[in-house]
Design goal:
This protein is α+β, with helices and mostly antiparallel strands. The protein is 41% helix and 24% strand. It has nine helices and eleven strands. The strands form two sheets. Strands 1, 2, 3, 4, 5, 6 and 7 form a seven-stranded mixed sheet that branches. A four-stranded antiparallel sheet has the order 9-10-8-11. Helix 1 packs across helix 3 and helix 5 packs across helix 6. The model has no long low-confidence stretch (mean pLDDT 96). The structure holds (R)-mevalonate. (R)-mevalonate (MEV) binds next to helix 4 and helix 5.
Length: 307
């Protein structure tokens, strides 16, 4: 039984979304997690996940191992106490800790492959809830946007504790993603923002209000087929992310390089301090912006079209 899940990027509203403001996120199909589950003649649940150098049996993993946690949580949810004899293979092209949702994608693909194999398919809603529980174990106070966009595999306009809204672009648009190669410490950056917010709630609340307006306006421009106007909003959103201290010199260098190379706008994407930035481009200049990002230090670039 096989299942896959995509990566994701946040277009607008990261961090503000933790404080109940809207954010926009889209799946990135160029990278993905593939999980295969099959019967095994060996006793137990044998896991093979080369991208994290894991080859072993479930019960031998440390109790907080992210992959072991997903499987145990699912078995618990399904009321399975006697572990089946199976082999689980996990392959991923989503860079780990890059802000592209690799952890949530592993959880989604793993849960779907296991539940299909065990003949106990779960609705998207159940999968999303379970993955959110797991995200909370590893990331402190996540908003739930990563698991939602990856579970539903559609562009989402997300607000915490609100019904999920997907949206459809009126016209396709192209984004170049540039990876600083520095692991994005999302848990720390979310925790630091929380501490700063506690110290100066008025200032942070008003920044989050501005970001909320940006996300709302961006959704409108995307849905009404005017994505070329998103560049300026990206630039503004990046300024606010700088103000809340989640950018970094490496991210800023890539953002400036993208704009100089002709991008219509650019910003960091995700938790920040490392990980990825995104740039809005005319399709014709996508390759040259990607090249400029690599010359400015990006460890890898991805060109993706949102449609
Ligand atoms: C991480 O992809 C996005 C953040 O807003 C955290 C979250 O929403 O859980 C930084």
């Amino acid at each position: 039984m096989k299942s896959s899940a995509p990566g994701k990027i946040i277009l607008f509203g990261e961090h503000a979304v933790v404080y109940n403001r809207p954010a926009l996120a889209v799946p990135v199909d160029q990278v993905q997690v593939d999980v295969e589950v099959s019967d095994s003649d060996k006793l137990g649940v044998w896991i093979d996940a080369p991208m994290v150098d894991l080859h072993g049996e479930l019960s031998t993993l440390p109790s907080n191992h992210p992959i072991g946690t997903v499987i145990l949580k699912l078995f618990q949810h399904l009321g399975i106490s006697l572990h089946p004899n199976i082999s689980v293979t996990i392959r991923s092209t989503i860079p780990v800790a890059a802000g592209l949702g690799s952890g949530a994608a592993v959880s989604v693909a793993l849960i779907r492959a296991l539940t299909s194999f065990l003949d106990h398919p779960l609705s998207n809603e159940r999968v999303n809830d379970l993955v959110f529980e797991i995200e909370k174990l590893h990331h402190g106070t996540p908003s739930g946007i990563d698991n939602t966009v990856i579970t539903y595999n559609m562009p989402v306009y997300y607000m915490k504790d609100k019904p999920i809204e997907t949206f459809k672009p009126g016209k396709p648009f192209t984004i170049v993603i540039g990876d600083t190669g520095i692991p994005a410490p999302t848990k720390e950056s979310v925790g630091d923002v929380r501490r700063l917010w506690l110290r100066d709630q008025n200032r942070f609340e008003s920044i989050f209000n501005e970001v909320a307006q940006i996300s709302t306006m961006a959704r409108h421009l995307i849905e009404t087929g005017r994505p070329e106007l998103l560049g300026e909003l990206m630039d503004h959103n990046h300024e606010f992310l700088q103000q809340i201290t989640v950018s970094s010199p490496e991210l800023d260098v890539l953002v400036v390089a993208a704009r100089k190379a002709g991008a219509l706008g650019a910003k960091l994407s995700g938790g920040g301090r490392g990980g990825n930035m995104i740039a809005l481009v005319n399709p014709a200049s996508a390759e040259s912006v990607a090249g400029a990002l690599r010359s400015a230090g990006a460890k890898r670039t991805i060109i993706t079209t949102i449609q």
